[in-house]
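(Fold this chain)
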Amino acid sequence: MRTLLLTTAVLLAPPAFADSARDVHRATLQSTEIGGHSIAYLDLGDPADPAVMLLHGIPTSSFLFRDVAPRIAAAGYRVIAPDLLGHGASDRPDDLAAYATAARADRMLALADSIGIDDFALVLHDVGGITGWQMVGDAPERLSAVVATNTMAGLAGVRPAPVVMQIMGGEVSPMEAFAGLDDPAAARDMAKMWLDQGWSGPGSAPEAEIDAYGADLQGSSAAYSGFFAMAVPAFLQGEEGLKADLAAYEGPTAIIFGENDLFFDASIVVPDLAAKLGTPDENITLIPGTGHFLQAIAPDAYVSALTEFLNTNLEK
């Protein structure tokens, strides 16, 4: 297991970006229709290079990868970063079943098909892991590598955001919890709750980040209700099947983790992931002083760890 040493400047000063960064990012996205829904995605790099798919979690989108995707592409990879259905610039259908895990995984595999990608390295962040683990089980032969970045494969060490704890405790239904997301102020408050915990606690997330993801959350009540009503219960009930799927995967795996993640206790979650994925110590990188959204907080360290693993394990 490696621990990357970072300068204080990197840890305390995430990359600045203009107020229009969200709009600029969206202008770089392409889109295609998958199963009757428009799916937006970032596609960078030479199509002849090995492909890497970056899957986001909540409350994010491909916008999370805006600083790291170009650098990964520059290292010799074709980078695909989709907006999952209900997120970012992708469609937001009202049908809750559209957000079930199997449907989400099928959609990502179909996206790869639609843009001519047969196999790819799958890089998972946050609850993007829930979709990704389904892909590992459904199509392991298509995955040239699997990288877990601040995600989980079970509940051990997980410290959910307050709204998620209320849902899991039965205090509110998913539909009740996310009913207010059509309201801009409520959407921004929800984004702030997740981002503050994802940085380093109350008041820590940059205001521009909160504004960007608050805007993305507007109108996504069905997406979040559907995810927590359809995908999360199935994930919690299926850990034994998940363990079997991950144990059966024979490709190379890596774990890159912000060590100070307030959602996922690295001292518990990283060993759990390593055991289930069979990840060797040399492919585990901890980034100290870094929280959950390490792609935005410490992009240099993230890209360095990821490209070193890819360069070692993928054929160019």
About this structure: The chain has one domain: 2-159+238-313. Confidence is low (pLDDT under 50) at residues 5-18.
